[in-house]
Amino acid sequence: MDADDFPTTESAMREGRQLSLEEMNQASQEAGDAFVANLARIEAAYAEHADEAFIGRSPERIATVTVGIDLRPRGVEFRHKELMRQFDRETVAEELTAAFRDARAQADERRREIAEAVTRA
Question: Is CATH 3.30.1310.10 what the domain over 52-120 is classified as, yes or no?
Answer without folding.
Answer: yes
